[in-house]
Design goal:
Elements lengths: L17 H6 L9 E5 L6 H14 L4 E5 L4 H11 L7 E4 L19 H18 L3 E5 L1 H8 L2 H17 L3 E6 L9 H5 L2 E8 L7 E9 L8 E7 L2 E5 L21 H7 L8 E7 L4 H14 L4 E5 L4 H10 L5 H6 L2 E5 L7 H15 L3 E5 L1 H6 L7 H14 L3 E9 L6 E2 L9 E10 L2 E11 L8 E7 L2 E7 L3 E2 L7 E2 L19
Parallel strand pairs: 1-5, 1-6, 2-3, 2-4, 4-5, 10-14, 10-16, 11-12, 11-13, 13-14
Antiparallel strand pairs: 6-7, 7-8, 8-9, 14-15, 16-17, 17-18, 18-19, 20-21
Helix pairs in contact: 5-6, 12-14
């Protein structure tokens, strides 16, 4: 087996985790020593095992040197992920050999001779096996054996020089048990990968990875979310919209409702996002579904992220209105995603959207709703900045994005949790109004960056087969005050049959 680096980018070595390779712009520099640091339970051992298993796949022999965990513990961890560790060597320096009388000194009793024996065993195994990838787990034991910082640093430097002469790529694992602020290893290592585990008051842990240092490589800075589950670590690189641009047609797309198209100046344009805003029960979700069905009937792929309700409830309600989603789900054109509010990170959500767009060719993305998106991730900071990057990315990919934002209150003063209108290319505003003892719904387009649109207010209602948008109602009063009323003579939808359906979302 060869020690030559196998890499997606010339001269780079894959870390075994696609997300980390993406952050690093191709992978690790081969024949260097790297520090992987993090508190216990952050995933250091899992990352190291994936690193060695990737080497096996690429024909590079590996060696796992453990001073803290037993072979049985490592095998148990691997089996939980469905991995077989027999393809690389495990050197267990805390073995039962230390109980044999012939071993007067063991690594369990810190002494100068024990450090020498430990390092000697490492060198002997490396010379015999000639591994291309090495994991040393963990540095806390070497730190104890060294007894003082100067000797510890000199020992790490000596190992670094030795591994460099053997053309080995080495991961040193450290559990952050050193003195706070002790970063002497950072100066020795070629690169530093920091793992972090953030615990919120409710919901699952949020795991993050950060490249603290990497010599000679331009990498994506900052924190990146990752998950640790059966099958190993999956990293979700932080989305930077400027890195993703594609050419796409800009022909206007119909919403499937002639009145809504007229209100929008012809329809929705690829590469724009529409914010659908209004109080509860006004018809926002049904409007989104109606637009998606029009796209699906044109053969375009769509994904719908549902935060607020279950998929079964959504399907039942749409079926009652004659908008059948099941055939499109079965055909593969429509993907429905039920988001579990307490179990997803912003990075994972953005990564799922990217996969749908880049791998499935999705052209329409709907998020219902932004209120739940923000509440689903309590304690997360900078969610609006992440939404800004996500919308920028979708616009540059030529995707039509529909965002639902619910407002507090039914009549009177209506308020929003957030103001995201500045990020939106199109804003559709819904309001209730009263007329002759009935509560009806009005809709207007208050903003459109891409094309000229009507400034009028039209009546909106839910009907069999979808939504209906009526003629412009010129005689409204009090719309901006939150208590609109209509005193005109234009015929209203359903004025002859008096059937007004205001159910739905």
């Amino acid at each position: 087996m060869s020690n030559k680096p196998a890499a997606g980018k010339q001269g780079r070595l894959s870390s075994g985790i696609d997300g980390i390779d993406d952050i690093l712009g191709g992978g690790l520099t081969p024949h260097r020593m790297y520090l992987v640091e993090g508190a216990p339970g952050t995933g250091k051992t899992t990352l190291a095992l994936q690193f060695l298993l990737k080497g096996v796949t690429d024909g590079q022999p590996g060696l796992y040197i453990t001073l803290s965990e037993t072979r049985a513990e490592l095998i148990s961890v691997a089996e939980s992920h469905g991995w077989d560790l027999s393809s690389f060597e495990i050197l267990e320096l805390l073995s039962d050999e230390g109980l044999d009388p012939q071993y007067e000194q063991t690594v369990l009793h810190p002494a100068e001779v024990e450090l020498g024996e430990t390092v000697g065993n490492v060198i002997k195994q490396v010379d015999e096996l000639k591994p291309a990838r090495i994991v040393l787990d963990s540095l806390s034991e070497l730190r104890l054996l060294s007894q003082n910082p100067l000797r510890y640093r000199r020992q790490i430097l000596a190992l670094k020089r030795y591994f460099a002469t053997r053309e080995c790529t080495v991961l040193l694992l450290d559990d952050n048990t050193s003195e706070p602020g002790d970063v002497q290893l950072h100066s020795i290592a070629h690169g530093v990968i920091s793992l972090d585990n953030v615990v919120h008051d409710y919901g699952g842990n949020r795991r993050r990875v950060r490249i603290s240092k990497m010599r000679g490589i331009k990498f994506r800075e900052g924190y990146h979310d990752f998950s640790l589950d059966t099958g190993g670590i999956e990293v979700y690189p932080r989305l930077v919209a400027a890195e993703h641009h594609a050419d796409f047609p800009t022909a206007m797309m119909s919403t499937g409702t002639s009145g809504l198209d007229a209100l929008l100046g012809g329809g929705l344009i690829p590469g724009t996002n529409a914010l659908i805003i209004g109080p509860s029960g006004v018809g926002k979700t049904t409007t989104v579904v109606s637009c998606l069905i029009a796209a699906l009937e044109r053969g375009e792929r769509c994904v719908y992220y549902v935060f607020d309700e279950t998929l079964s409830t959504l399907m039942i309600r749409c079926n009652a209105l004659g908008m059948f989603l099941a055939p499109h789900v079965e055909s593969g054109l429509l993907t429905l995603r039920q988001i579990d509010p307490a179990e997803i990170s912003p990075g994972e959500f953005a990564c799922d959207v990217r996969k749908c767009v880049e791998k499935q060719g999705v052209k329409h993305v709907a998020i219902d709703s932004l209120n739940a998106y923000l509440q689903a991730m309590p304690g997360e900071r900078y969610l609006l900045l992440q939404m800004h990057e996500l919308l920028g990315y979708l616009n540059q990919q030529g995707v039509i994005t529909m965002l639902v934002l619910g407002q507090h209150g039914i009549i009177g003063e209506v308020q929003s949790d957030i103001d995201i209108s500045y990020l939106s290319d199109v804003v559709l505003l819904f309001r209730y109004f009263e007329h002759h003892g009935e509560v009806l719904t009005a809709i207007t387009a208050v903003k459109s960056r891409a094309n000229a649109h009507e400034r009028s207010i039209r009546q909106f209602r839910l009907a069999a087969g979808g939504v209906e948008v009526g003629e412009a109602l010129r005689d409204f009063e009090g719309v901006l005050s939150g208590l609109p009323s209509y005193n005109g003579s234009t015929a209203l939808l359903g004025a002859t049959d008096r059937v007004i359906d205001t159910s739905g979302q």
